[in-house]
């Protein structure tokens, strides 16, 4: 979005909204389900609270279509009319290499039954993302009963099931592993493992978010379709006939016939019977209530089956990290899922070591990040390899962006960041935090913020005022990690449900 | 070979053949020896089979010179007249960054007694090889009784002894380690270790294949000659006289005299007595029948002293991997040696994680690989950073190349590949598989191919035909990993010996 | 210094000397202290020797100002008049990407109370330094009682305290850690950890050398000031007011007032009481006489509290390495400190694996290094990716440079190198040796040099002369690692004190 003119921006914004709307009906079932799921797993709820919560979920989804239409018409004017002037915001967008939307994705598969989109290489966007150049992000969306053809990648792939009920089969060296997965399940498919999948749900769309970690070429990977025919083209067809005849001990005609039949693409429709057959012998996925002990099994696990690491009425954070899970240790990866209650916000914080790649799974809102690299005057200062301090007026610039389903944003290590849910819907964000080993989240406001932890003398020296004045600001907010958001505060404590 | 015209190609081909011929007599002893060695270690042979096998080795080598002359005159027309038209093949060669021949090597040492050739950086050839940019491949050839001067490299070096009997001395911090090596021995010389070597064989040429892993500059390394004089120039001469005088506590004249004597180059001739002296106190190399226990000794080991991981009458595969061997774990490396019986082939397969760098040690043949990156229409698609699926007609292109002694070829992770021995000679391929930890070889045909491992429903969905039609193709070949090759099959089961 | 003309060189030289002079008075106390410290920790001294040693320290420092003035007037003509002609030396400097001086540093902070300088990215200077592109070097100098404002970096930072008495506080996730450090202490500040510091010494300047290892962007890092105001600008100011109001639950006016007060820059002056308060509850730093057991505590340690790994009257070498220290294992780093007695030298040697980044802490002298990459005829040959051997006349070129406080020089793995102290002062060099695991220092002269370790036959073959002639040169020097330097030898064994 680097050089978009204002008019283009508006056109683009409009088309994004239309697309969002068309996705909406497909995702309503899903949202209801996830909302209820959150109710059941929200820490500290008793039975009655849970029921109320689930009821609100229903009201919420029922009203949503109406709200969405209104909102589209409003055109986000509300946010715009706030303190940030339109010009300022536009400037941020233009200078902001940390947010990615529809136009930054490539379509790698599209059939009648589904599609796969992959975000372009981060380094195509900006050199500031060189630290994550060997990661790619993508998602797969497929219809009920869709079958995804056998394929292997020259990349490790991490799956997160956001909706639908995939039954996935991995062909390992000496055995076949089949898992019935559900919402919240995380699965690592090691590089080169042939896998196929069916959405065993009859009504719900499958939506899978992927983190892709190429093993062969930095940041580049390819799908290899073997079993198949003309579409997707099988890699068998690249061998000469003499080699194929010898390898299979069959005539050319026969071989040719086999590899000519499949023409329907890599995502096709399975019959009810075929779905039944494929899912019958599966182990259930990450359903076990206990986290896999470190060093043990390599099956899937469910992000929501552990207690949230942080939870209050303004949101909850689920996390799987390398210290607990062997699989993630090898990948040096934290996976987290934040469910920010509508109208609420995440405390400004930063990661000490990890760079966070976030994918908005549901809801709307925006994020803000403090960035020392981007300067309206000097362009990308990191490019020059130098940084400058007091004398030369180092300044932090705000990087911000609107969040909605499918938006990806990146928060590098050390960068203070926050996200705010709109007043209309919970904001659900899945994050892959790479370089995760030994990472700490440092809160910058709320109960355990870093300033409260300083000695009084240090507070005075740092701020140039008496310590009690520092404390008046830093000790007012008593919540931890999730806070009431801007609107809620302004309106004197009105709380969104959940 | 990117832009060679057809005429140049033929000229080149001719000169390669002449070179091959001149190497032939030198390598005949070697081949006989290796052939016999294979007989003795081929799994499942009883005593009589072993003797027959060895006898056939002798016949084979006796007839070889004759056959080689004929073959050269034929000029490989046989292969060319097959299904692949000449034009098509030439095109592949032009687009093929995965095969390397004489012209891609630089001469780093050449004296009367031997030579060292090093393949240029992989990334000079193509960005598609960026994943292995920190590896270099080379070989050393030296006369009987040749002495290779003391030298250290800013690189880890892995040696494979293909012929000759090197006695190598490593100067470690507190001791001197000397090993009498033989064919099949693998030795890791850690970066910076001063080493010298003599070929203690009186008649056989020394031939050593090297994998070089620079520690200081990615993909770049240098030899540092210390003990020596004007040729090779000693690095001592770079210091100022005042420093040298202080360091040695000797006069400039004396020092100057010492470093002026050696002028014969880094590979010179030793006398029989000197060879005897150098090899007398050596430990024998990887002769111990038991594989070094993991985590233990760092000495050499012999690739052929373990049972082959796969073996039948069509070939055998020897392997050392990081799971078994501490040394290789640190280097994250698999070393394998495939001996493909003449006329036979390796099953098409792919590596799940490892990228394979192969060096043809003996014999002739060709390889084929399915490659998704190279497209006649779009050039190197990886370069653009995107990949495209069903809609845009992704296709796999065949990459192929002729194999003969000294040819290097690369098979990246995930890429289906096969190699076929000519009808005239066994094809012996040494492979360094980098990024080897946790690698799996997935066979694409033969007894344990990935398709056989799929459920019937998945077969039907993937191929669009009833499962039994899939099985007719995928279950005919009963062999595992090594198969009869194209000619053998065509001629109705004629088998080559061994 | 790549393209400096001779006149510029002289101008530069002059200004460096002036600068050195102005630093001199500030560093005299320090030198006396360090000199005495060395006396107390020099291996093998009895009480009387120690006292004599300390007395000499005092004489040395007393005479120093006088000597320094004379030396400046002399203009290093002594060294120049030796064998290396002026022209030759100038050529080396021009071609030499391994030495860095004042003009290669950027000022990142400068206030009345102190300054921070950071060396530019190594790869900006030369591709030959690509192997260390993810390391940066810097130093901090601050007045007595200077306070360094709370800050975190997107980088791991290693501190070495060269002078002053810093009290440093790290804000960890759940606790605050404060250490009273002293000369010789090494501290690792993990990426993202907020830290602030005060120099609790009332008279001595603080001088800290830093190795910086970015975690997010290769070779790039930024300071993030949180607690603070307008100078240094706080990253809090990058968030929108609506977000800040919600995060802190306070009015905009109040927040604005707090973040407007601090305007004195990131290094300010603390009062005596504030210093007292900040250091009162600290643990003392690396004062414990026992090295932290591996895998245990992550606090600071003192490089001088272990026995030197090598020590004689010509110098001593202190070292902390990854084999002994968990902290350094994670960073794959060796830290060493060489104190070369005035007039003495380090034995020429090379590191087998590690690349050494050295920072001259005190004293003067020069270094010489044998370099195979730089050739007056061919430019940087590594750039071409090829190296050539006997035929093409590979040669080692001398790389050399003058050393004085603040000079940084790099010795890549495998490169023979030596350093020589001037006749006027001990030369004290702090080195960070990256890629340190399993590194060996190979001495090229002195008692355990690599040639002595060779068999006689190998000596004869390598040098082309009888073994006893080789030994006459290589066995004269009986010292180990530190030798009498060029002048001392020339003058028939006159020894410098200590």
From TrEMBL, chains A, B, C:
Region (Disordered): 64-93
Signal sequence range: 1-26
Pfam families in UniProt: Cupin_1
CDD domains in the cross-refs: cupin_7S_vicilin-like_C, cupin_7S_vicilin-like_N
Coiled-coil annotated spans: none
Residue ranges of domain Cupin type-1 in the record: 97-256, 301-471
Protein's UniProt keywords contain ATP-binding: no
Keyword Signal attached: yes
Keywords of the record: Signal
Name by which UniProt lists this protein: Cupin type-1 domain-containing protein
Ranges of compositional bias, category Basic and acidic residues: 64-83
Gene3D superfamilies referenced in this protein's UniProt entry, alphabetically: Jelly Rolls (2.60.120.10)
PANTHER family per record: CUPINCIN, OS03G0336100 PROTEIN-RELATED
């Amino acid at each position: 979005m680097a050089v978009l003119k204002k008019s283009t921006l508006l056109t683009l914004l409009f088309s994004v909204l239309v697309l969002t709307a068309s996705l909406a009906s497909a995702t309503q079932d899903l949202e209801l389900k996830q909302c209820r799921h959150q109710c059941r797993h929200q820490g500290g709820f008793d039975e009655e609270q849970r029921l109320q919560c689930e009821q609100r979920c229903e009201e919420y989804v029922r009203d949503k279509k109406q709200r969405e239409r209104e909102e589209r018409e409003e055109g986000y004017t509300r946010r715009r009319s706030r303190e940030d002037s339109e010009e300022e915001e536009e400037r941020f967008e233009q200078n902001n290499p940390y947010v990615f939307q529809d136009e930054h994705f490539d379509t790698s598969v599209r059939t009648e039954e589904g599609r796969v989109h992959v975000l372009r290489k981060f380094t195509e966007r900006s050199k500031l993302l060189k630290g994550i150049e060997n990661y790619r992000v993508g998602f797969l969306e497929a219809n009920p009963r869709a079958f995804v053809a056998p394929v292997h990648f020259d990349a490790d792939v991490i799956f997160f099931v956001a909706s639908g009920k995939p039954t996935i089969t991995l062909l390992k060296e000496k055995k076949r592993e089949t898992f019935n997965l559900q919402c919240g399940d995380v699965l690592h498919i090691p590089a080169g493992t042939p896998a196929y999948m069916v959405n065993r749900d009859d009504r719900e769309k499958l939506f899978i978010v992927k983190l892709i970690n190429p093993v062969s070429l930095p940041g580049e990977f390819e799908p290899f379709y073997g079993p198949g025919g003309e579409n997707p083209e099988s890699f068998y067809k690249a061998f000469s006939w003499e080699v194929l005849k010898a390898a299979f001990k069959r005539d050319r005609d026969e071989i040719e016939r086999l590899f000519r039949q499949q023409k329907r693409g890599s995502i096709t429709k399975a019959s009810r019977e075929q779905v039944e057959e494929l899912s019958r012998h599966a182990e259930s996925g990450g359903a076990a209530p206990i986290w896999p002990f470190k060093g043990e099994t390599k099956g899937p696990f469910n992000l929501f089956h552990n207690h949230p690491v942080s939870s209050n009425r303004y949101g909850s954070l689920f996390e799987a990290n390398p210290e607990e899970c062997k699989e993630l240790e090898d990948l040096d990866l934290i996976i987290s899922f934040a469910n920010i209650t509508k109208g609420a916000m995440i405390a400004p914080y930063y990661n000490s070591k990890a760079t966070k790649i976030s994918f908005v799974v549901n809801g709307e809102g925006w994020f803000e990040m403090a960035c020392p690299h981007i300067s309206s005057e000097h362009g990308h200062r990191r490019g020059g390899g130098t940084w400058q301090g007091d004398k030369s007026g180092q300044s932090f610039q705000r990087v911000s962006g609107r969040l909605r389903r499918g938006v990806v944003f990146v928060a590098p290590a050390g960068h203070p960041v926050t996200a705010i849910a709109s007043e209309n819907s919970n904001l659900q964000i899945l994050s892959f935090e790479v370089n995760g080993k030994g990472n700490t989240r440092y809160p910058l406001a709320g109960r355990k913020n870093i300033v409260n932890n300083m000695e009084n003398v240090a507070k005075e020296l740092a701020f140039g005022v008496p310590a009690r004045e520092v404390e008046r600001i830093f000790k007012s907010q008593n919540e931890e990690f999730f806070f009431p958001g801007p609107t809620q505060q302004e309106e004197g404590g009105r709380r969104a449900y959940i």
